[in-house]
Amino acid sequence: MTGARRSVPSPMAPRAKKTEPFVVRTSAIHGRGAFATRAVRTGGRIGEYVGQRLTADEAERQATSRDGHTMLFEVAPDVVIDGSRNGNAARFINHSCAPNCESVIRGQRVFLVALRPIAPGDELGFDYNLIIDGPYRRVWTARYRCRCGAPRCRGTMLRLRAQNRVGREYRRLLRERARAKARAKARAKARARAPR
Questions:
Q1: 50 within 8 A of 90, measured Cβ to Cβ
Q2: Are 88 and 47 in contact (CB under 8 A)?
Q3: Which of 89, 92, 172, 185 is the most buried (most CB within 10 A)?
Q4: Quick check: helix, strand or coil at residue 75?
Q5: In the chain, at which residue ranges do the beta strands (DSSP E only) sit?
Q6: Rounded to whole angstroms, how far apart are CA atoms 80 and 110?
Q7: Cα 171 to the center of its chain, rounded Å
Q8: What are the tens digits of pLDDT across the range 67-83?
Q9: pLDDT number for residue 13
């Protein structure tokens, strides 16, 4: 019998790192997006949305950018998480009208949970349900336009109470653009046929 030793792991030895559930890379939906690195079962936790905590007044003063890009998450009547300040990669999860995950608020923390099985490589998306105070303004149609590409895309990232009006407005604008493009094409065709 040889004097072979058995290797006993040291309590100080580094442990195998758990694979992150997603990675950030370029997205077809908008800028950068989060993509699953491993399978996630329905109800599985994807991560926590973190960032600097602000009061509602501080968040209002901060104001969103002109393109409607926001990383503010309201967790209580006077508590907002700003993912753009001290936030993590969860802030890159894009909006989708056919989401595969949802946000769940527990206490004053936000967790992202899978709504259905997610395969490695799938882009993560949840419904932002953005709320805009005040009367409808036409500029919202472009500012909060949805680019998710879902078959039943509603055309906006805004919450249901505003989405019907904004979604209809957006679809009307798309129809107007299509008609204008068709008219321009017809005029160009007529000019090409006209004798010189």
A1: yes
A2: yes
A3: 92
A4: strand
A5: 22-26, 32-36, 45-49, 52-54, 72-76, 79-82, 94-95, 101-106, 109-114, 125-126
A6: 11
A7: 21
A8: 456 678 888 888 889 88
A9: 47
Whether 170 shows a pLDDT value over 90: the answer reads no
Amino acid, single-letter form, for residue 118: I
pLDDT of residue 51: 92
Alpha carbon 63 to its chain centroid, in Å, reads: 19
Structure tokens at 16: 């195998």
| Global pTM value | 0.67
Q: How confident is the model at residue 134 (pLDDT cuts 50, 70, 90)?
A: low
What's the rounded Cα separation, in Å, for the pair 177 and 175? 5
Q: Report the distance separating Cα 33 and Cα 176, nearest Å.
A: 31
What's the token pair of residue 6? 């058995």
- What DSSP character marks residue 40? B
Helix then strand count (H, E) for the chain reads 3, 10
Indicate the helix (H) or strand (E) that contains 129: none
